[in-house]
Amino acid sequence: MYEIGVRRFGAVNWMGLRMLGWREIRRFLAVWQQTVLAPLITAGLFLTVFALAFGRNRADVLGVDFLHFIAPGILMMTVIQNAFANTSSSIVIAKVQGNIVDTLMPPLAPWEILVGYLTGAVARALIVAVVIWLGLFAVLGQGIAHPFWAIAAVVLGAAFLGGLGILAAVFADKFDQMAAITNFIITPLSFLSGTFYSAKALPPAFQILTHYNPVFYLIDMARFGFLGVSDASPWHGLAVICAALVLVLGLGWYWLRIGYRMKP
């Protein structure tokens, strides 16, 4: 006889973890036109607008052609926004519809729920990154100078923004609250992170503020990975992102463990 409340799956409920991760992946693949094709079109529109606005007369940035300079930033910005949207939309929809209990009731530990949601965010981010890069390669001939740093930027960025999406969705009870977090926190962090400019071109005060934005290091790391140039040391950026990731995932785990704003 098994005692009530005792886990019967060992240290890890691999079946439950695999099913939650696969559910999150299937959820965004079911609407691939919105989750994969739409980001490609959005990235293409950004690139087209800047190409038409500045033409070929724009001076090089960090010794790189302007369009090539902003391409990794656009890719990374699109990737992290999709990672955030994947986890946040999944949890908020479940909370609003009242079926979040289907995720909380199975014998899954808080960290397993966290990893399951992040699996979907990272998978979506990788697919979006590959699709956009193929488009950039076809249009600009965009290569990859340092594959390790490019992949690290995408994976860490997806995990970090996916974790922020979990925090935001746990905190939000309604769609308008989620929209406010996206519009007033996530979007400014994404746009004011050196996506379309070099941080070295900013006034000293704004340079200091930029270096307090963790998304800046993700953009900068991605730019180093694709182009081999960056505003800051990629190793410094890696340390900052890893520290921020530990804080975000640690808080996410704690909120899931105590059922903060998830359980009555």
TrEMBL record:
Residue spans crossing the bilayer: 36-54, 66-84, 114-141, 148-172, 178-199, 235-256
Domain ABC transmembrane type-2 span(s) in chain numbering: 30-259
Main location: membrane
Keyword terms of this UniProt record: Cell membrane, Membrane, Transmembrane, Transmembrane helix, Transport
Membrane topology listed for this record: Multi-pass membrane protein
Domain of life: Bacteria
Subcellular location: Cell inner membrane; Membrane
Record family assignment: Belongs to the ABC-2 integral membrane protein family.
Name of the protein in its database record: Transport permease protein
Protein source organism: Thioclava electrotropha
